[in-house]
Design goal:
The complex is a heterodimer. Chain A is of the alpha/beta class. Helices cover 34% and strands 28% of the residues of chain A. In chain A, helix 3 packs across helix 4 and helix 5 packs parallel to helix 6. Chain B has 13 helices and 18 strands. In chain B, helix 2 crosses helix 11 and helix 2 packs across helix 12. Classes of the chains: A alpha/beta, B alpha/beta. The structure holds adenosine-5'-triphosphate (ATP) and magnesium ion. The site of magnesium ion has 3 residues of chain A, from helix 1.
Chain lengths: 232, 493
Amino acid sequence: MEPILRAEGLGRRFPVGDGVWALKKASLSVPAGRFVLVAGPSGCGKTTLLNLLGGLDRPTRGDVELRGVRYSTLDESGLARLRRTEIGFVFQFFNLLSDLTAEENVALPMRMTHMPRDEVAARTAMLLEAVGMSHRARHTPYELSGGEQQRVAVARALANDPTIILADEPTGNLDSKNSTEVMDLFRRFNRERKQTFVVVSHDPAFAEYADVVVWMQDGEITSVEEREGRPS
Amino acid sequence: MVFFRMAIRNVGRNWNRTGMIILGMMAASALMTLTLAFASGYPDVVHLSYRRMVGADILVYPNRFIFSGPAGSDVWERRALAPDHPTDALFFHPELASGYLSPASAPPPLFDTSELPAALLGLSGVGRVEPARLMRAYLVVEEGPGREPGRVPVIVRGRDIELDRSYWDIPSIVTHGRYFNETQEQAWVALANSRGLGVRLRPGERLVLEVPLVRGFATDGSPVLDHTDPRTYYFLVYGVFDLSLGDVPLQGLEDQDLVGPPPRVSVGIDSPEVWIPSGTFDLIYEEVSGGPFRYCAQLGVLVESMFHAKAVAAALAEALPDCSVLTVPQEVGLSGLTYVAAFDPSTGGVQVTRIQNSRPVAAVDIKAELAVLAFVVAGLLVVANMFILVSQRRREIGILKAVGASSRDIFVLILTESLGYSLVGSLIGFTAVRLVTLLGLAFSSVTLLEGALLTLGSAALVIGLTVGTALVFGFVPAWAAARTPSVTLLSSS
Ligand SMILES: Nc1ncnc2c1ncn2[C@@H]1O[C@H](COP(=O)(O)OP(=O)(O)OP(=O)(O)O)[C@@H](O)[C@H]1O
Ligand SMILES: [Mg+2]
């Protein structure tokens, strides 16, 4: 299948000391509908890779291509538009806007597009329903548990029906029960809606579920493990 | 648009965060308002004293002030008023006769009020020009108990009641009887200085003035008086004023075996003046001269604030080189003036010294430089606030960028918030301070309109400056934050 996301010779060097290559040279193809797990020891460059894939950071070398659009051809606002419409992020620390309620957080990416108000409202309600957070729509992040916040964050990531969802340790800050719940959400969206995921996680539960496991070490991708016959 | 609306809502949301910033903006604009208030001599708690008694051909003064001499301490003596002196200023402030405050040494030029110098009227910052209405006359002392009949030379002063009500601290001047009011223009009422006339008049009594006819005007505009055929006018003594410095302890009596506290001497200002409503003055003047009041020796020039006063005075001095122009020193004080009367055994006279010994309670001697400094401080406060606003929210900005906000969106967001905070803050700060000064205004006699106009003017200045500074200096941190990549912003928490 034609890959939806492709990284070629991706490298990122941070200008500290003599320069640190957080990511040396990574190439990766993600076909649509796949669930990709990125794994590896701490400090091997997983977050760096994910940030580059999501256009939150610019690579030192190499390029990323999402649905045929090369990031290197986009200016700052072009990249912002890409993040807004094509990419959904889920962070370890949830990163909800603390001044906004759950539904306002979910609605935010939609409001940045030209979606009509009633459509935003309907879609927000649908997404909150899908992540099981309808009853907490009017609550601010402070009034929600970690698991609840992360479910809202997942709903927000899905808001503009992105091509791909990138998640960096989405369960890293959750207890096992909440981890399972969030993971089940990912699984459901992947299976039922063919949503493409790239997830960085230490959680073995994800490993069990992923189609592809990308192993990294020292800023490089050491192996890509396809799991054709995974249970469904 | 989303970000604009979001910014507007952010201003109102989360008060414990925005509160500090708004408070900062408030403080800044309050500081500016206060500075303005003092710079224009605005706070009316501050009483003013001798405004028009200062001698100069042209007097430039702000809306309010308290006058003091060139030095912190000055000395003057009781002295008879030279009968031909058109103003009483030198009498009260003899030090004006020398030094930087000295009036022209030549006979004072008379201004033709019907055609005031264009240079004067055309100056920007000049509000009203008020001629001092002064006329020579005789007070006819009628036979009475303990009173010898006779004639006393006096100066009749036509008082602009509206002006007096706003500029004079009338209650402390009039000690017996009443002060006339607006409705008494052209009424035959008079106020007399209880000390200067050599005869004690009482409210309710009849006061008779003999006014010599004006036979023409000399080339300099001075009236040619005909003393042989005066007109007689009858007034009701409405009040007797007493310009007094109060009771002052008498010093220099140590060698005279005193028992008890040192004696005090009441120090008054004994100018032989009779004040009448200016409408009445005009009536009389027209009768004795056959024309409207025209030539006067002293002009008052009203300017909007002390900032203007300095500039206007400088421009006037240049435009009218023959005139002495006096800018009343800008000194605002609540108290702190002490008078000392010293007995001089050799002459048997008493010398009164004014000492500015204690710091005035709300002593403010705002020079333009100081005002500018206050504005700079206020500006810095706003700038600091803007940096706090942005640095507090790096993470939030990072999130916004991660979900698709562009640099421009962030920029709009922060600038709009800056606008909101500074607008709300400056509005509150301005109103708070202004209310206090307006409260003071209520106890004064500045007209409501005048107060309102001044308020609008300084509101525009203060709010405009606060908001302007916030926007200009919000620009830099807003731009910086907008340019920072999302990852960097997100990693700072
Ligand atoms: N902004 C930065 N400046 C300098 N060095 C950085 C920066 N970000 C990451 N690094 C370095 O790059 C390397 C890879 O970091 P990265 O965060 O990608 O690792 P990771 O695999 O996500 O680790 P973990 O599993 O602990 O999250 C690390 O050595 C890290 O110290
Ligand atoms: Mg990481």
